Amino acid sequence: AFMEAFLELEFPQFSYLIIDEAQDLMIPRYLEAMDFILDGGIQNGNWYFFMDAERQNLFHNDKNEEDVLQMLQQYNAHYTQCRLKDNCRNSVAIIEKVDEIFGTETRHKHNDERGTDVVIKTYKKTADQVSALETILRMLLREGIKSEQIVILSPIRYSNSASSLITECVVSEQPVNNAVFYSTIHGFKGLESPVIILTDIDNLTDDARMNILYVGMTRAKSALYILAQEKTAKQLGK
Prior knowledge:
Blueprint: H1 2-8, E1 16-19, H2 28-37, H3 41-44, E2 46-49, H4 65-73, E3 86-87, H5 92-102, E4 107-108, E5 119-123, H6 126-142, E6 150-154, E7 171-172, E8 180-184, E9 193-201, H7 207-217, E10 220-229, H8 230-233
Parallel strand pairs: 1-2, 3-4, 5-10, 6-8, 6-9, 7-8, 9-10
């Protein structure tokens, strides 16, 4: 249907195709569409795909990097593969915590910002998490951090999250002034914020859930807070 609509509207083929977060689109039907709309196709066209098909593959986690490359090879694609190894987003303290949890060895651009240590708070019940979340928000706002610089991320939607119960400040599912922004981790992938608060972390039993945690943690530029259920927190070194 997509390709039929493309023809009906008489769009010209694109000269260049540049896709960020490309791991989200690396399945046969999407590749077929890309091949169709690109002048020269995937085999001979000009394209750039930026992706992390391992840790940041949340939507098609049954496919790893090798699977993606095999799909591209089916198009006899001629491409150069470059690995971007330097972390230019996260503070040193956040990088060190990510490496500790995931067993990675991340290269980073050395700068003056170590950032604050990652803070992990544990909870037993929802009420405990709400209280901890409000305490963190109150502290950040008192320190002069603007609401717009704080993002609450969760694996679950707002209506089911502890964030829906807080009264300490305004929380919005849309980025607006004078409000803390709330998003699912899936919805915030590829984005960043100076301060990230991860909530509702109560299940890390498989690779898919660990990948969600990885994406959530690496959205934070300067400060990261994690609210985790007591048993789950043990996997985070708490």
